[in-house]
Structures are given as C-alpha cells and as structure tokens.
TrEMBL record:
GO terms for biological process: fatty acid biosynthetic process. It comes from Salinimicrobium profundisediminis. The lineage of its organism: Bacteria, Pseudomonadati, Bacteroidota, Flavobacteriia, Flavobacteriales. This is 3-oxoacyl-[acyl-carrier-protein] synthase 1. It holds the Pfam family Ketoacyl-synt_C. It catalyses: a fatty acyl-[ACP] + malonyl-[ACP] + H(+) = a 3-oxoacyl-[ACP] + holo-[ACP] + CO2; (3Z)-decenoyl-[ACP] + malonyl-[ACP] + H(+) = 3-oxo-(5Z)-dodecenoyl-[ACP] + holo-[ACP] + CO2. Residues 2-421 form the Ketosynthase family 3 (KS3) domain. Gene3D superfamilies: 3.40.47.10. Its EC number is 2.3.1.41. Homodimer. GO terms for molecular function: 3-oxoacyl-[acyl-carrier-protein] synthase activity. The keyword Acyltransferase applies. Belongs to the thiolase-like superfamily. Beta-ketoacyl-ACP synthases family.
Length: 423
C-alpha cells in the first residue's frame, strides 16, 4: 500500500501564541514570544531571556481535571496536552470520557527532557526521607512516554501509542513516522507532535556550554538572530505542536478539512563523521537527507516555494544554507524563500520540529510567508548564496504550494518533511 497522507487538525502552544489563531496572527505580525526571565537572572545565567508559552490558569482548568492538576509539575505535559487536544478537536474527533477506543487511531508524540521539575521535587523529597509525599503521578510525569499516556487518557487511541526522542529533530521525525505508518495501512490517523519543558533545569546546560546569547538581556526580542551576521547563539525556548496525520481516504469519508498533504520526507544521520559531531551536522548527511526527501515526495527542488529551515542563529546557519543550495542545485534568485521561526520563538528544542511544522503548514493553508526578525544584517556568506529578497524580514501574502521543513539535531540526526497544498 502507498496511501496518501494529509493533515486534518493542528494545535500549538508556542512562546508567541497559544492556539492556532493567536499563533497565525503572531507569524503575520512578526510578534515575538521571547521575554526576559527574572528567574534566570536570579540564578545568574549569562543568558536571561527565553521563549515560554503563557498558559493562564483558566486554560489549565479547561484541559485538566482538578485531580490531574493536583501535583502536576511538568510544563511539557501541559503544553503537549493542550496542543494535542486542540488538534484532535480541530480535526473533528471525539475527546474526553465519551470517546470510545478507536483501534485505527494512534499517537506518536515526542519529547526530549520531560518532567525535570517533577524530578527535582522528587529528589528533594527522597533525600528528606519523605517519599510518601511524592504522589501517585510522579512516575507518569517523569517517564518519557508520560506525554503520550496523558494524551491517550483524553483521546482513547487503540493503535500505536508511543513517544520518540531525537533531540531537536523529534517533532519532524514524529510526523514522518506517523506518515509512514499510515501509508503502509497500519493506522488511519495519528496524533503526531512533540513537546519540551520550560525552565532553568532544561536550559542550564546550554548556558554552561556558552552557546546562548548574553548580549540581549535588556532587549529580549532582538536576541534570536537566525541568518544574521551578528547572531550570537540560540535563545532557548519551549512549547508543543500537534498535528493530526490522516489517511486521505478516511479524511474524505468523514468530510474533514484538509490543511495540507504530507508528500514525503526522509530521516537519517551523518554518523558523527566528516566534521559531524555530537553538536554539529555532517553536511553530507544533511544534503542526502534533503535530496532523499525531495525524491520521496516526487517533486523537484525548483518547485519549492519555501524552506522552513532549522537555522538556530549560530555559526552553522551559513553552512545550512550552503547545504540546501548544493542539494537543490539552486542559488540566488532561483533559491526558494527561506525562513526560521526561531527569530520569534527561540529554539524550542524537542518541540521545535512540531511547532515549526504547524507554522510551515499555516503558510500553505493561509497563503503567506512569515518574515525573519533580526535578519537585517544578513550574513554575507548567506547573501552570496540566497539573494536578499529570498530572506524576507517581514511577512507577506502569497500563494504557497510546497514547503520543506527541516530539523537537524544534537547527535547529528536529520529530518526533512515536504508539505504541499492538497489537490
């Protein structure tokens, strides 16, 4: 079997917008979600800015019962459940106690570090010989697959329910894993996505590595500068994105709205060789991933309207653009438009691929290309490859038919998904 795969629902909890409407408006207006974090200042972090979704108390009560909220101390689970339930409802699928087990429905929802604040709480209680106060949810909040388990309590999926983890590639990988399962006829629909916790215990290691910018603590919105000559490191972020990935036949049968089609994609690794390492990609692996994704999707590189790159605002940005140019055999005015959501949200780590996939698909479904904030001083090596006009600073409306979404993660792991307008 080789079934067609479409996106029929989406949800998002991003630093610059929770919910599709707020997120879409933020993309079009160039609204940043990067803010000064007093806690990071108190803890003497060099970088004291970050992107973190704002979840009001009334929203928590809408998605969690009073019992679930008792002792809930995992921001990643909060973001993941909100975005996942929104996506499921958006697809017109049942949520809550009235939903019965559906053996055709599944969940592939990834994470990197989950429940780190709950771990900290548990460690203190154990050290104080007070394990009775750990509570009955400490295990599910700190196991990686806790996010999928929380979601399935709401959705009653009877097909594969699992959690993947591949650093910054996690979200894009989850979507492609879901698409593969549906193409093969093993499921009809899968909630795919990823989440990441917020806070100093997630971001501290990166601050210690000195790969976060410290020059913009007084000007947070200027801190994340993908493709800029003055880029000084990635701003940490967090959140979740969720997409209902569905068999086209099933979607048409039930009259679901279709945001886009998943034409294809590819997942690989550079093997941490040929200048690839734990923290840097092997360019040959990246180019192979791009070429194989294009081949799998059955399109040509010159048909791409937009590349939504990984582009984290580090020294690797120029290398990534060069890899795209060589893989597609395109440059200058022939190069596709390219953007990085991280200028508005920071780097959402394991949530990045899913949040950015939602942004990529919104460009297709709503007909616009969002801009790159803080790219006014475009890196000269990038300008040599992609003309200035192909790195827009502001959003603009335009028909978008084909988008490539890329994620390149720690451990030299790569994923590229190709989304298209459904026809």
């Amino acid at each position: 079997m080789n079934r067609r795969v479409v996106i029929t629902g989406m949800g998002v909890a991003a630093p610059n917008g929770v919910g599709l409407a707020a997120f879409s408006e933020a993309l079009k207006k160039g609204k940043s979600g990067i803010r000064f974090q007093p806690e990071l200042e108190r803890l003497k972090f060099r970088c004291q800015i970050a992107g973190q979704p704002e979840i009001p108390e009334e929203m928590l009560q809408e998605y969690f019962t009073k019992l679930e909220l008792r002792g809930l101390n995992s921001s990643g689970i909060v973001y993941g459940v909100i975005s996942g339930v929104v996506a499921w409802k958006d697809a017109g699928l049942p949520v809550g106690p009235e939903a019965e087990t559906d053996w055709d429905n599944g969940i592939i929802f990834g994470t990197g570090i989950l429940g780190v604040d709950k771990f900290r709480e548990a460690i203190h209680l154990i050290d104080d010989k007070n394990t009775r106060r750990l509570g009955s949810t400490s295990v599910i909040q700190t196991m990686a697959s806790g996010i999928s388990a929380y979601l399935n309590n709401k959705l009653a999926c009877g097909n594969q329910v699992t959690t993947n983890s591949s650093a910054c590639t996690t979200g894009t990988e989850a979507i492609l894993m879901a698409a593969d399962r549906i193409r093969s006829g093993k499921a009809k629909r899968i909630l795919a996505g990823s989440c990441s916790d917020s806070g100093p215990y997630v971001w501290g290691g990166f601050d210690a590595m000195r790969i976060l910018p410290h020059q913009y603590n007084d000007d947070p919105e200027a801190g994340s500068r993908p493709m800029s000559e003055s880029a000084a490191g990635f701003v940490p972020g967090s959140g979740a994105g969720a997409l209902v990935v569905e068999d086209l036949e099933s979607a048409l049968e039930r009259g679901a709205k279709i945001y886009a089609e998943v034409l294809g994609g590819h997942i690989n690794s550079g093997g941490q060789r040929n200048k690839g390492s734990m923290t840097a990609p092997n360019s040959e692996g990246v180019k192979r991933c791009i070429k194989n994704a294009i081949f799998d999707a059955g399109v040509r590189g010159d048909e791409l309207d937009v590349i939504n790159g990984h582009l984290t605002a580090t020294s690797m940005d120029a290398t990534e653009i060069r890899n795209w140019s060589e893989a597609l055999e395109l440059k200058a005015k022939d190069f596709p438009y390219i953007n990085s959501l991280k200028s508005l949200t920071g780097h959402c780590l394991s949530a990045a691929g899913s949040v950015e996939s939602v942004a990529s698909i919104l460009q297709i479904s709503e007909g616009f290309i969002f801009g790159n904030q803080n790219s006014e001083d475009l890196h000269p090596e990038i300008e040599e490859i992609a003309s200035r006009e192909k790195v827009p600073e502001k959003s603009f409306f335009r028909e978008v038919n084909l988008v490539a979404k890329a994620s390149f993660g720690f451990g030299d792991v790569n994923a590229v998904a190709i989304f298209s307008k459904f026809r």
